[in-house]
Every structure is written in C-alpha cells, then in structure tokens.
Amino acid sequence: MLSGLAVHPDGNRLLVAQGWTDYPETSSYSIWVLNLADGELVQQLEGHQDWITSLVISPDGRWLLSTDAEGMAILWDLESGEEVRRFDNSGTSFIFHPDGKTALRSSVDFSLELWDLASGEMMRRFEGHTDRVNDLVLSPDGETAYSTSNDNTVRAWSVATGELIATYQPFAEDVTNALAISPDGSRLLVGHDWEWVQGNDPIDGAIAVLDTGTGETLMVLEGHTGGVRSIEFSLDGRYALSAAGDRTLRLWDMSTGQQLAVLIGHRHWVSQTAFSPDGLSAYSTSADGNWRVWDLSEYIGDPGVDR
C-alpha cells in the first residue's frame, strides 16, 4: 500500500511512502520523491524498517519528518537526501512548529512531546490522553496544539507550558482521528473513525467542524460511509478535502458545509489526501498501492476569485 503523502511547498514535488507489506506485497519501506510534472522518481529515501505512517515537510521545504508503525521517526535533509536524526518511541504523528526549530510529536505512551530538532532533546511533555494519539495540528501562530485520540477526545494544549487548555468530545462514541486546522486558526476539522477490531462494521464517517475558541460544533459534514483517515483545508480556507475507508475522497465548501464532489477511483481505503498549492488539484494515496491526481477545477473554479 501507499500511506504517507506530502506536497512540497515548491509545488513541483510530491512525496509518497510505502506502507505495510500485505496489500500489495512489497519488500521495502521507501519514501519516493516524485516530479509532479511527469510522475518520475527523482529521489528515494531509505531507512525505515516498518510501514510509514506520516510524512511532514518543514515550511521552508528543507526538512522532512517521517514516522513508522514501529515507533521510529526520522528527520531528513531533502536537499541531500540524507538522514539527519532519529527519534524512537514515536507515535504516528510528528509535525514541525512554525518556528522551524522545534517539532511536536505523539508518543507511544499517549503523551505529546516538543523536541528541539538541532540538539535532538525533548523540551516538554503534554500529558492527559488516556489512549493512543492519532493526529496533531498546531495553530498558525504556534501557540496552541490540538490532538485527537482513541480516547474519543480532542484536546487543546499550551505549547509554551504543556498545560491542557480544553477537552472536547464532538462524537458520542468511537474515536477522533484525522485533524486539520483552518489557515486563520479559527476552525478545526475532526474526522470520526473507530478503533479497529476484527468484525467491526463500518461507521458513518462524519466530520465535525469545531470553533477553536469555544470548542462548539459549528456543523457536521456528512457523506463518508467509512472512517475518516485524512482531512485538509485549502490554503485559502474555503474548501476542505477528506479521505476515508469508503475508498473515496470528498470535496467540501466550508462556508456552507455542502459536499461539492465525490472522487471515486481507488480500489481500497484512501490513506492520505492533499491539495496542490494552487488549490486546483488534489493528490491521494491508498491501500490499493496507487497514488492519484484529481482535477478540482470544475468544482471550485478559480480559488482566487470570490463567487
């Protein structure tokens, strides 16, 4: 399968990661750097020994953080393709702080941790979750962190102190999974999922839109028929993309909550999705082993023009 996905800030490169070996069979856990113009492989990063769960590129495009299911995170120099540092006992998320010098990660012990990337030293712990942390985002100013978890909560944290600010529970049961924050920091998107147990039936993959100031649920985006694995706002905050276990991507108008498009083509659940920098295309990876490019222009028109 293909799991992690990240679009380089230069808009010319796409990074995708190989997942577990069962579907389809694979013998390595590589990160591919692809030329978006022609899909050609321009760089291949090797180092992980288990399926890669996330890829995050620094705001300046120089560095990459990747995490895997074994609990290993790797910091890469994208200019040289060299491995810079390793962090063990990592959870499934590791994201750059806007300052470019630190990064926030989930840990295997259900905590969050702030790390200094230059020294490799942990600076601060954030404790409160009672089960696995699934996703993380930071406010645009870097002052507040938000996390989702198998304990079915969304938690807000002070980055400066590590203190818990608030706890929200937008869904009555199951787990909070995929998470995104609007470019202005005013809204969160929280994807509904379930803690997988053999024999569980799929759930409706609702997406709650929360006010970051109050935690109030402003609206719920309904349409997915499987757990939500990935969500992202467009750069202007007007649209959102979601990917789920129902093998679809969905495009949403964030002013109304209207579903604008259902993108069908993957043959297995969709792992990750992302907008192109101009907002007119979407990218996705899936357990079917493919990555896809989707044309959104017929649904949203010119992102720079008000309608």
Explain what the structure shows.
The chain has 307 residues and is mainly beta. It has 2 domains: 1-96, Lipocalin (Beta Barrel); 170-307, 7 Propeller (Methylamine Dehydrogenase, Chain H), CATH 2.130.10.10. Helices cover 1% and strands 52% of the residues. It has one helix at 297-300; strands at 2-7, 13-18, 31-35, 41-45, 52-57, 63-68, 73-77, 82-87, 90-96, 102-107, 112-116, 121-126, 133-138, 144-149, 154-158, 164-168, 175-181, 187-193, 205-211, 217-224, 228-233, 239-244, 248-253, 259-264, 270-275, 281-286, 291-295. Strands 1-2-3-4 form a 4-stranded antiparallel β-sheet, with no helix packed on it. The radius of gyration is 18 Å and the shape is globular.
